[in-house]
Amino acid sequence: MSETERKVFQFFNEIGIINQLATDIFQSNMPDGLHVSHFSVLNHLVRLGDGVTPLKITNAFQVSKGTMTNTLSVLSKRGLIRIAPHESDGRSKVVYLTDEGRAFQKQAIESLFPAIQQLGEKMDWARVVELIPELERVRKILDENRD
Amino acid sequence: MSETERKVFQFFNEIGIINQLATDIFQSNMPDGLHVSHFSVLNHLVRLGDGVTPLKITNAFQVSKGTMTNTLSVLSKRGLIRIAPHESDGRSKVVYLTDEGRAFQKQAIESLFPAIQQLGEKMDWARVVELIPELERVRKILDENRD
DNA sequence: TATATTTAGTTCGACATTAAACTAAATAGG
DNA sequence: CCTATTTAGTTTAATGTCGAACTAAATATA
User: Fold this and answer.
1) What per-residue confidence (pLDDT) applies to B147?
2) Mean pLDDT (whole number) for B123-128
3) Strand D contacts (CB < 7 A) among A residues 24-83?
4) What pLDDT does residue B29 have?
5) Which contiguous run of DSSP H or E holds residue A62?
6) Half-sphere exposure of A68 (CA within 13 A, CB side)
7) What is the pLDDT of residues B132-147, one digit of tens each?
8) Is A6:B127 a contact under the CB 8 Å cutoff?
9) Mutate: best of B3, B6, B11, partner A, most A CBs <10 A
10) Cα-flanking dihedrals φ and ψ of residue B139, to 5°?
11) Helix (H, G, I), strand (E, B) or coil at A33
12) DSSP single-letter state for residue A112
């Protein structure tokens, strides 16, 4: 194993650990039985717009269709989204945010502000966010090269 | 939401996506029914030394005790680790790598070299690994501040 | 048009993971 | 010592996720 290879593994290892620690923090702020994955879908709909098909969301999250069926049915049962039949394609459906869904997404995000602030006392966020452009590059390349 | 907060979310979002894409690549290289989590435990034992208790590994991975019981029993059934009673503590156990376990870890890592090389045609790994020190800082702070 | 293929979503069985209850052993405090 | 508490690991029920089989609708092709 070359030095570069070793460091590449180290890079992805750090990414994995950070992701797990951050997800744990996020998860601990989720109310009664809702999972980060549920929030993520709501967040996606808020940011990129609702009125999209389940398959579109499935592709965005690179997740199996069965998983998305399950996630959407939980969100629907909770009244956070509304699932309507597709106007022109009888096989398909369209997902809309409800007011409750939008409120939940907003509230979930705001619930993290204190944690961000508290971490900011020990961490220089300005320096951290400078990594974003390079991370974006990595993400895009990994994304384009997935099979 | 301030600009900093927005970027902090974006940072963790990029981290999450990269982690998922990288994990998917890794997972697709795992043989017959073995999961990345199984590899991770073997890798941990190779890098930091075996002969440790399940609880030690549990803490290292910040995972529930039940999860580790399950993971270790899979690894043990596959002959990749050996679980022995603890010499001085009747409640505890000690985990050892087998030769098969070491070989598996080695082979799993090497199986990723082609993917790393292929990605290297589109990605400047030298620049990517420069992010490691800052990521380490973030990881350490998150780690120290977990409850 | 009739049939074959593709596409969108659901269902099913398997497994990873979790939290909580549980067992057994070790330790602490009286 | 003896009891209470803590600690290490297992078990159990619930849920997220996956891949594969399945259904139904749309599209391609002949």
Assistant:
1) 65
2) 96
3) 33, 35, 37-38, 63-67, 70-71, 74
4) 87
5) none
6) 18
7) 999 999 999 999 887 6
8) no
9) B11
10) -60, -45
11) coil
12) T
Interface with A, mutate which of B2, B3, B9, B17 (most A CBs under 10 A): B17
From residue A135, alpha-carbon distances to A4, A48, A90, A145, B66 in Å are: 18, 20, 40, 15, 34
Tokens 């320096």 belong to: A127
B17 beta carbon to strand D: under 7 Å: no
B116 vs B118: CA distance, rounded Å: 5
Asked if B126 and A18 touch (Cβ cutoff 8 Å), the reply is no
Residue B52, phi then psi, degrees to nearest 5:
-115, 165
Mean pLDDT, rounded, for B27-39: 91
What distance in Å separates the CA atoms of residue B86 and residue B102, rounded to the nearest whole number? 22
pTM of the model: 0.93
CB pairs under 8 A between A and B: 139
DSSP A70-87: HHHHHHHHTTSEEEEE-S
Shortest distance between the Cα of B97 and any Cα of chain A, in A, equals 21
Per-residue pLDDT of chain A (147 residues; tens, 9 = 90+): 899 999 999 999 999 999 999 999 999 888 878 999 999 999 999 999 999 999 999 999 999 999 999 999 999 999 999 999 999 999 999 999 999 999 999 999 999 999 999 999 999 999 999 999 999 999 999 998 876
Residue whose C-alpha is closest to residue B50's, from B31, B75, B70, B26? B75
Contact assignment for B132 to A23 by CB distance below 8 Å: no
Local structure of residue A63 (DSSP, 8 states): -
Report the pLDDT value the prediction gives residue A87, as an integer from 0 to 100: 95
Residue/partner pairs of A116-122 with CB below 8 Å, 24 or more apart: A116/B5, A116/B8, A118/B145, A119/B141, A119/B142, A119/B145, A122/B141, A122/B144, A122/B145
Give the relative orientation of helices B3-28 and A3-28 as an angle to the nearest 10 degrees: 120
